Amino acid sequence: MFGSVLNYVTLRLLGEGPNDGDGAMDKGHDWILNHGSATMITSWGKMWLSVQKDVVSLPDGLSTYVLLIWEEEDLYYPHPLVQDALWALLDKAAEPVLMHWPGKKLREQALHTTMEHIHYEDENTRYICIGPVNKGYNGSQLWDTSFAVQAIISTKLVEEYGPTLRKAHAYIKNSQWYIVINCYQIFLLEVGYYARRNGSLTCESYDRSLGILQGVGSRETSTNGDGGFATYELTRSYSWLELINPAETFGDIVIDYPYVECTSAAIQALVSFKKLYPGHRQEEIERCIRKATKFIESIQEKDGSWFAPFPLKTCIWRTG
């Protein structure tokens, strides 16, 4: 329902008529109504629909007047009872208090602090931010560029694509705003190529060139006690906080958990770096690899598989 409603609304706003697309629009509209109408969309969908000024002109069943009905056709993470009680308490009891002095003063201070964090992240990331959470998804340019570089290298067309690789290399170095394990792996592999081919990076200058990543040593500080790697930071809170997860379309997102995909990427990156500079921070790197390997072994399912709840499934990329 989430995907169907948003795609239908988007096409209508772009000018598609109710019977356009060789009947595709009509079939989409019928499917939505037959499954309970837009009232069955998850909270993220309700939010997006509520900001569309023209949505009230859509056919019956897609009106914003009914979007407050808390029913979902494809609810992945149902609200626990404690969450419904908490939101109701905040709405009926806390909200009225915070609208008048002295609660209003506390509310204003909280909003001011929140805006400071928003502005800080905007400036720190050149107004790109973290991705889908802040301002809507902004693409995967770093990810795609790094994989494209590895593809060119693996086809042995380095000389032919020299200018392209140099531009891509500069972009990748300038795009390290967040420590994302997946990007870190391919970043190391790509930069490692330049270290081998051009001899322009010593291990010390390589550490400095990583900017916010602060070199290989930062990966050691991002290892959890069990040896696993999460997406951005250490797992530093409690799983019971998932009781207040309001996303509905995602589960296990309130804290950052270690994943097989991220841990695998980190191991590959560290092994690649160790081959380039076998004597640089050798003990740290080997200890990190051992702990990460044990973590992957410990979470393997009995049938030999690994469960990958993280949206980006395991991807092993090898060059040469």
TrEMBL record:
One GO term describing the cellular component: lipid droplet
GO biological process: triterpenoid biosynthetic process
Family label: Belongs to the terpene cyclase/mutase family.
PANTHER family: LANOSTEROL SYNTHASE, TERPENE CYCLASE/MUTASE FAMILY MEMBER
Domain of life: Eukaryota
Organism annotation: Populus tomentosa
Example of a GO MF term: oxidosqualene cyclase activity
Protein's UniProt name: Cycloartenol synthase
